[in-house]
Amino acid sequence: MSSSSVTNPSVADETLRAQIFQRLHPRVYLERFIAEKIRPDGRTFDEWRNVSVNVGSISTADGSALVRMGGTTIVCGVKAEIAEPELDRPEQGFLVPNIDLPAICSPKFKPGPPTEEAQVLSDRLNEALVASDALSLSSLCIHPGKAVWTLYVDCTCINYDGNAFDAALLAMLGALRNTTLPKATYNEETGRTTCSRKTRSQVQLTRKFASMSFGVLDTSHVLSDLTAFEEPLMDVTLTVIVDDRGELISTTESGGAISEDVLLQCINRAKERALQLKD
Amino acid sequence: MAQSANDRRRINGPEESFPPIFDDDGEDIKLKMQRSRAPGDIRPIFLQPGLISQANGSAYIETEKTKIACAVYGPRQSKTTTYSEKGRLNVEVKFAPFSCTRRRAPMRDAEDRSIGVAIHQAIVSSIRLELFPKSTIDVFITIIENDGIEGCIASGSLAASTALADAGIEMLGLVASCSAAIVGDDIQLDPSEAEARASSGTVILACMPALDSITSIWQSGQVSADLSLKVILSD
User: Fold this and answer.
1) Could A59 and B65 be called an inter-chain contact, meaning their C-beta atoms sit closer than 8 Å?
2) Contacting residues of B for A160, CB less than 8 Å apart
3) Which end of chain A has fewer surrounding CB within 10 Å, N or C?
4) B140, B144, B149, B151: CA torsion to nearest 10
5) Which residue among B21, B51, B144 places its CB closest to the CB of A58?
6) Would you call A156 and B9 a contact, using CB atoms and an 8 Å cutoff?
7) What is the sign, positive or negative, of the torsion defined by CA atoms of A75, A44, A252, A279?
8) Burial A149-174 (b: 16+ CB within 10 A, else e)
9) ipTM of predicted complex
10) To 10 degrees, what angle do helices A116-132 and A164-178 make?
11) Per-10-residue mean pLDDT, chain A, length 279
C-alpha cells in the first residue's frame, strides 16, 4: 500500500475511495459489479471458491477435519463419550452437532453465549445430518439399553468469510468419516464399559453428500457460494443438499419469494457441483 | 457430565455421558513420560501471521501438538462510557470443545480465564497503550489442540504478540515466552502435558528480547528460590 502511494498516488486514492464507497453504500457497490456480470472478488456468478479439506490433524479428537472454503476456515472435531440410551430407543446412540462462531472469526461477533446465527446454523446442521440419515444411530450401540456411544461433533469457525453452512457440513462429514471408535465391551456383572486402546474401528457413513448455498439478488441474479460481504445483501438465500448420485436430500429457502426457474437453476448447479466435489 | 443439560441455545446430547475408560489405563502413562528431546531443547515452532482475513491482525502457532489461533481486533471504541486516557487490552482465551483429552463443555471456566490473565500479563507491558485513549484492543485466542497449559500460555503469548505486530499496533518490542519444568534436578524446557505433570514445579517466563527485559514470570509448584532463578536464566 505504502509503496504504491508513493509511485502512483491516484491509484491508491481510487482504491481508498472504492473502499469508502463499499462501506457506505454496500448494496449499490454490489449492484454495479452485478451489472457488469462479475462479483467483487472477481468470480463469475456460478463460480465456487477453492475448497481444501485436511483430516485427522487433531490428536485429542477421535476424528477431525479442517475445511477452508476461500477465506472461510472451520475446524471440526469429534469426541466420543459413553452414555445410557433413552428408554424408548435402547439401541440408538446420540449424534450431537454444534457450531460455534466465536469472536475470533469476524468483527461482527461478540464474545459470549451463542448468537442467534450460531443457534440457527447448529439446528440446520443437526437437521441435515438427521434428514440425510448418513449415520445409522444403531451402529453406535455398545450394549442395548445399557451403553451407547455419543458423538459430540463440534465445529469452531476460525475465519468467517461467508457460507459457513456449506463449510461446516463439509467439516462435520469429513470429521465423522475420519472418526474411529475404540472397541468397547460392556461388562454385565460390574455394569461398566471398558475400551481397548489397541483396536479401533471406523464410523460407517452410509452416503456421501454436500450442501450448496446460493443467494438471489433482484429475483434473477443467482450467486453461488456467498462471501461475508455478499451474504447480508441478498434478497433470498437457498441451500440445496444433494448426494453423490445426484439425489436431493433437502432444500431450504429463506427470504422473499423466488420463481420456479431460479429454484431449478440452483438445484442443477448444486448437482453439477456435487459431481465436481466427488472427484 | 459433558454439558449443562438445560442449555437451550445449543443442541444437547444425553443428560450424562462419560469419556471412555480404557482397560489398560495407568500402564502406558509411564511410557509417555519419556522425553525424546534434550532438556534444553524446545519443540519446533511453526508460526504464521495473517491467516484470519477478517481480523486486523492474526497469527497461528503450532508447537508439535499444541495448536493455537489468535486474532486481534482493534484498536476500536471502548464499550464502557467512562473516559480512560489509556487504551484497554482485553485478552480472551477459548478452548475448542475437542482440544483436550476430555471433552470441554462449551462454557467458559476458570482455566481459560487464568490463561487469559497470564497472557495479558505477558504482553500488556509491551504495548504502548497510552497511544490509544478511549479504545480497546481485543485479543481473541482459540486453543484448537492443547498439550500442556504451560505450553499454551507460552505459545499463546508469542502468537498474541505476533498478531499485535501484524495488526500494526505500536509496541516496545515483540514478546517471546518459554516454559520450563523441574524434574528432579533437571530443568526441561518447553514441557508437554505429560512432562509437566511429572514435574515438581513449572516456571513460565515472558520477555522482550529487544529490550532485554522481562514482562512476566509465573512460577508454580515446589521450587527453591535458587533453582527458580537458575530456570529463569536458562529460559
Assistant:
1) yes
2) 54
3) C
4) -90
5) B144
6) no
7) negative
8) bbbbbbbbbbbbbbbbbbbbbbbbbb
9) 0.85
10) 50
11) 54 88 93 92 91 91 92 94 90 91 90 89 91 86 90 93 92 92 87 84 87 89 91 91 86 86 85 75
Q: How many residues does chain B have?
A: 235
**Cis bond upstream, residue B75 (ω within 30):** yes
From chain B, pick out residues whose CB is under 8 angstroms from the CB of A145: none
Whether A152 sits inside 8 A of B97 (CB atoms) is yes
Per-residue pLDDT at A3: 45
- Looking at the partner chain, which of B17, B51, B53 has a beta carbon nearest the beta carbon of A82? B17
In eight-state DSSP terms, residue A138 is G
The neighbour count for residue B31, using CB atoms within 10 Å, is: 8
Name, of A156-160, B27-31, B74-78, B229-233, the range with top average pLDDT. A156-160
- CA nearest B104 in A: which residue? A79
φ, ψ for residue A92 (rounded to 5)?
Answer: -110, 130
**Residue of A1, A81, A157, A190 to mutate when probing chain B, most B C-beta within 10 A:** A81
Cβ–Cβ pairs < 8 A, chains A and B? 152
Q: Which CATH architecture has domain B40-234?
A: 2-Layer Sandwich (3.30)
A208 within 8 A of A278, measured Cβ to Cβ: yes
